[in-house]
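Help! Submission page says 'invalid entity' but I think these are all valid:
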Amino acid sequence: MQKRQQEKDSSTAQSVMATILQSIPKEAQVSKIDYEGPRIALYTRSPSFLMENNQIVSDLVNVIKKRIVVRTEESIRKNEDDARKIIAEALPKEAELGGTYFDTATGEVSVEVKRPWLLQNNPEFNSAKLTEQMGWRIRIRKATIIQSSTIQQINYNLKLSSSERSKQLKQIGESIFRPRLAQRSEVSLMTLGGFGQVGRSSMILTTPESKILIDCGVNPGARSPSEAFPRLDWANITLDELDAIVIGHAHLDHTGFLPVLCKYGYKGPIYCTEPTLPMMNLIQLDAIRVAAAQGRAPLYAERDVKQIMRQTITIPYGTVTDIAPDIKLVFSNAGHILGSATCHFHIGNGDHNFVYTGDIKFGKSILFDSASWNYPRVETLLIESTYGAREDIQPTRQEVESAFINAVNNTLVDGGKVLIPIPAVGRAQEILMVIDHYMKAGQMVEAPVFTEGMISEATAIHEAYPEYLARELRQKILETDDNPFDSEYFTNIEHSDAREEPLRDNTPCIILATSGMLEGGPVLEYFRNIAPGNKNKIIFVSYQVNGTLGRRVLDGSKQVSLLGKDGKVEVVNVNCSMIKLDGFSGHSDFNQLMSFVHKLRPKLRRVLVNHGERRKCESLAMNIRRQFRVPAHYPQVQEAIRLF
Amino acid sequence: MQKRQQEKDSSTAQSVMATILQSIPKEAQVSKIDYEGPRIALYTRSPSFLMENNQIVSDLVNVIKKRIVVRTEESIRKNEDDARKIIAEALPKEAELGGTYFDTATGEVSVEVKRPWLLQNNPEFNSAKLTEQMGWRIRIRKATIIQSSTIQQINYNLKLSSSERSKQLKQIGESIFRPRLAQRSEVSLMTLGGFGQVGRSSMILTTPESKILIDCGVNPGARSPSEAFPRLDWANITLDELDAIVIGHAHLDHTGFLPVLCKYGYKGPIYCTEPTLPMMNLIQLDAIRVAAAQGRAPLYAERDVKQIMRQTITIPYGTVTDIAPDIKLVFSNAGHILGSATCHFHIGNGDHNFVYTGDIKFGKSILFDSASWNYPRVETLLIESTYGAREDIQPTRQEVESAFINAVNNTLVDGGKVLIPIPAVGRAQEILMVIDHYMKAGQMVEAPVFTEGMISEATAIHEAYPEYLARELRQKILETDDNPFDSEYFTNIEHSDAREEPLRDNTPCIILATSGMLEGGPVLEYFRNIAPGNKNKIIFVSYQVNGTLGRRVLDGSKQVSLLGKDGKVEVVNVNCSMIKLDGFSGHSDFNQLMSFVHKLRPKLRRVLVNHGERRKCESLAMNIRRQFRVPAHYPQVQEAIRLF
């Protein structure tokens, strides 16, 4: 108790400032100490001193238990042209300098480089010296083959809003580090969506000090607003009562309602991993276009998505971040899609540790490592259950890959075309990696691979964040010239005129196109041409919902009708073969979910199950109870559960 | 669905008014239709027509499904003096007219009469004619032997606030009968106190339309505010968001925080049964005195208790009352204390029925009938569990009564005195009835019975509401001159000087005095005198909490120290005998709780357990699950449970 009191005292704003001032030597030339969101920024006129003596800052972090960043004072920052020249001179030519992006809110310059590995352990490249020279902290990034227009948009927006963001980050910091009022911790979880159901994931973590909204999805399949959106109305809170919004990953069922909150005036911070920001922006903007194409009024406009960019604070995996006076957040790899994270909330001074898996893949894929599980502490685990029933067992990766190779090879050898209807984000990149891998290894017949839709843009975002990819893939990208995303087999179809090539007769090829359930998008144009040919094949790699064209085709319909471009109904004969492959899923199957819980078992006091149809939640909860002897429940939407 | 739509339409404000206007004949001379809280008031210049043709109103109630009251137009009301003269002339002399109380907010006159049975089926007493004559609706009440000063205070306050209340009742009505916004019903229960614990009972029933606070108690034993009071802070609502407060019974652990809500600006209606209002006022005012005596700052002042009187709408048992656009409330006898009620909430158009037992006695006592259980429908039951463990079995009434008789007789025959430390409300009246019954029957040695403290005031309130007493007792009071409350054995000690009589040497007698655990109050003065005498006896009939003087004495201490009047510590030798009797409890024992659930079993979908220590809740829930195969849970404080 006494220890805790001391910890508390040493974390008050005044004592933090005093500790910093006492610990920083004069040579550091620190001229200002300020909040920058969840971090404390030390502004200096001589950044190289603290960069070279980085022990000073890490010692300080250990004492004050807060993140510290070293920033350059604005007065020493060279103008962007001069700074870029200095960079160009300092880099070895072979590294190949790409774009540079200056963020005036933080004084950081992101430098894109084609061969970043040439800068590592290179005595001629001294980033401290370079920072001192130009007054901007340098951050080296891998230059991508394809430029992601989403990331460019974000950078442009951040530049426009930099002075606004500086102020906002300071306010957020003041709010996070305000004094705690309550002596005791108390923790409740309010369920707003995605409990006993898939879709509209959302919940609020509350303590007497703070309220954190976790995920903010939509349920696209729902008929009424009370079933489609998170039940913020039931939670009876106003948006300015929220301390923060935390987003686990980019999919619409976790982020689709977030722009609406910004539209209606949410002004606080949004936390997610670095790639989640462009990924969710891409998906949120696409949802506007899809709504328009289907004649529905979109829920929000482009400006609301832009607003999200300005309020988002990105955090890498594994970084402990204060997001409220009594809550620390750590993201860890969830293995589901790029940037997907499990969220670990450390509440009070260790009073309670709550882990929310979000969508999780506890199994390795080519793109991602298996989800992390090594949390120092976790008393309450909230786990998804998309495949939570005992019978939800997927084939092994080896099995599904060899089935895929066979299916593709048979068709290509026969001179046919392979069409893979696919969601743009995640699964498409995984299939591309599989194809590249096996073609290069000589196990798959070589043939051109065409991509369509948002796939190429999503791929560009993957390439921009190699730190978030599986270890082997990351090493390939960051340390060699062999970049699988830049495979010579791949061709992106930028415009519908270019479709002639993949559709040319007697040219075996593989085509990946959206949408994944033949519900719309470019895939239909290919389907119209490919389905009648009995040498061709359609490979489904994702779930086909009842009522979709994909499902009808998969179920064996020999004739289906489409709405043609001219508005007339067109009958398509389906003579091609088809196959459905499970096992490329970004979700854990039943065994993987149980293994994940098993790993955490020694620490757990309680498991909650969400994000699955009711009977999946029920089944997983029951099996966890029986096998691991730990209390497990599956709340519904509109419940509050006392965690501590 | 269509039927429901129709029902909904016919209940909108406009159609209600239209229906009334069409159904009321001209002869009724209705000149105004207005809301009066949850009722619709028809103001007439000729009240006798609707009173004599009461079929018209009951037909109308069946159509509009709302309560209707007939009120006299203000212009026809005679002044109070003239009206009283008319009453005096109309009543038979032998009925003995007592006080009259005119409520200008409702145009009702309460007439106290010593022998009300003389007016029943008396052709000479025509209340419709009398109402027509004086312009006030007449309500006959039994005149009590002792005047309850609490009830007089309430009447005085209602008179002072009558014009304010008229306006307020209209506003409440408009709020209750506002149009429903949501199509579907959704029901959640938020637990604010009294779950997994005894004390600070409180919860909020929420639907998309409305929020009802049920009970608002304190936990007097708790150390910190976060454990002592309902967690309205956690529920995150403001007081003006509440549609209503519903109070089940008067005890402090269900009402002790209510004055604080009024203090901080709650302006809405408070619903309880008729006797619960004076009972809770008495108890709430006493709590101020107790706090002052113990040197603590009271939570609220007398004016806050007065404010409660003005906002309370009393409802008799069995009357269906709209309290929100989508919620109807019915109180039924809970058998626990005077006016104690189980609360039945009928939500939506029958979408869900929720019954909260409050403190419940499912077993007959002399004062009260056994709790009602015959609800037309109940899907969710919330039941208390004070004695919820399997081993919590009380002796039968017969056993405890004969033990009591023996204990008293032995001492009285021996020439000793019997001291019964007792809580003022409920248990004291029960013991008085037992004594009167057995003394009259010749089974108990006749001796004077002295009462002290608030007991006499509480007894007066019991006498004022004979409708709420057990059938036999009620009949005695309402239909005969044999009124057990007016027993010749009883003497109330109004002032401490009068204690000489009960304390006189060698005078066998029985003394009932507060408090029940020897923690303070007049009982200590008697204890000091009676404990040293080895012929005397102390009978404990209520639970003695650990650490109280009562518990120490019961555990066999032969010497105890008291703080004397002069502030000096005084040592008291305990030579008298003592006995503890269970079975007079106002709570159901384990078997009675199970029997109650058994009665409801065919209707139930789910049982929730509260108001018991955690292991009592757990035990009762488990036994209900096992024996009745119905889901049963025991939530904690600060949870929300989706009921529908």
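Support: the input was valid. A stray whitespace character was the problem, and the output above is from the cleaned input. The first helix of chain B runs from residue 2 to 10.
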